[in-house]
Write a structure and sequence with these properties.
Blueprint: E1 28-31, H1 39-53, H2 61-69, H3 76-79, E2 80-85, E3 88-100, E4 103-112, H4 121-135, E5 146-153, H5 157-165, E6 169-180, E7 195-197, H6 204-215, H7 226-234, E8 244-248, E9 251-256, H8 262-268, E10 272-274, E11 279-280, H9 289-303, E12 308-314, H10 318-326, E13 330-341
Parallel strand pairs: 4-5, 10-12
Antiparallel strand pairs: 1-2, 2-3, 3-4, 5-13, 6-12, 6-13, 7-8, 8-9, 9-11
Length: about 350
């Protein structure tokens, strides 16, 4: 299913970056992303952070490379900053920009290696990211109110404390939910006239278009550009044999696009599969399609030899929460989205003044 795409390298790839307020650590250097050649070291950094913070997910080198090759709402070579000490990656920070419900949101994400925390690296990178996000605002969006947005697992206590200290306040919550696959899974039929069909390559575009339509009414939705489809095609963990796609005639009705991250399972010593991309188009909602697809997806993961299923859900979507709890999912952890309004209109200064990020 997957296909490769060339790096979108620019002339500034790997160039040195000035981060005002950075701590005086010998050998510390900040630079732009060089390309997919950085993917392995970024994955190693993310793995160290996940294991230290009790995170439930670890992106692989292939995940990182795919996001670099198929960026959405960002230019990774312009909008990423890597911090190295004597050539070893110790932190990373990147920004995105999109409009969410009339607000121009500068998204900020960052990670600092556990061995290099509590030295000011996270705060300096966050502040640099705030200024950089403002500097990349397109002209047509500069009349909109702006806000910076960050997120963290509730387990990432250092990041949560940093965000609060820097004036960010909780804005939205989400849950990671898990289900024990040894527990009974109900047999739930699809409505009459709706059937399951295997996912074939000629169906991928229709599946993605149906998912885009289904999610268009959700909180936080920004119209998906073509880059989303290219990332969909390149996602390294998708296994169409696990997908459950419901059709009525020539129309995709709904889906669950399950997958397994084998490398992540090895790191945590578990057998988990994800039941994600759960979507039903509006004309077919409240007919039992989602519950039937999800139940069948759970059986498919169990039959693969997996012992646990997992998914993520917006805590303010009570219908989805009721569906998942009704099928045996339980809340395992909480994610917090924080926001901080821009003090004035979008700026164009990338000086890094007024710094803050995840530590």
């Amino acid at each position: 299913m997957m296909r490769e795409a060339p790096d979108r390298s620019t002339g500034s790839a790997g160039a040195e970056v000035n981060v005002p307020g950075a701590p005086p650590i010998p050998g510390l250097r900040f630079r732009r992303l060089a390309g997919t050649s950085d993917a392995a070291s970024i994955a190693q950094l993310r793995r160290a952070c996940a294991l230290a913070d009790g995170s439930t997910e670890i992106p692989t080198t292939e995940d990182i490379a795919s996001s670099i090759q198929h960026p959405v709402f960002t230019d990774p070579h312009r909008d990423s900053v890597l911090a190295e000490v004597d050539g070893a990656l110790v932190a990373i920070q990147w920004t995105t920009a999109r409009v969410i419900e009339g607000v121009l949101v500068g998204g900020l994400r960052g990670y600092v290696h556990p061995d290099w925390r509590r030295r000011g690296l996270g705060a300096a990178l966050l502040a640099h990211g705030e200024q950089h996000a403002r500097s990349t605002v397109p002209a047509e969006a500069r009349a909109l109110p702006g806000a910076w947005q960050v997120e963290a697992s509730a387990n990432e206590t250092g990041a949560v404390a940093l965000f609060r200290r820097c004036g960010y306040v909780p804005f939205r919550f989400a849950y990671d939910m898990t289900r024990d696959l040894s527990e009974p899974i109900p047999a739930l039929p699809l409505p009459p006239g709706i059937e399951l069909r295997p996912a074939r390559p000629q169906h991928y575009r229709a599946i993605w278009e149906a998912e885009r339509e289904a999610f268009s009414g959700n909180w936080g939705y920004t119209p998906w550009p073509e880059e989303n489809y290219q990332r969909f095609l390149a996602y390294p963990h998708y296994d169409p044999a696990l997908w459950r796609i419901a059709w009525e005639g020539d129309q995709v009705v709904g889906m669950v696009l399950s997958f397994v991250n084998a490398e992540e399972n090895a790191a945590f010593g578990r057998l988990r599969g994800y039941t994600e991309d759960i979507a039903v188009r509006r004309p077919w909602r409240r007919m039992g399609v989602a519950s039937a697809l999800l139940a069948d997806s759970l059986r498919a993961l169990r039959d693969r030899g997996l012992s646990q299923a997992a998914l993520g859900v917006d805590a303010e979507n009570p219908r989805a929460l009721a569906l998942y709890e009704g099928l045996g999912f339980k809340t395992a952890s909480q994610w917090i989205t924080f926001r901080r309004p821009w003090p004035d209109g979008p700026g164009t200064d990338d000086s890094g003044a007024g710094n803050r990020s995840r530590s």
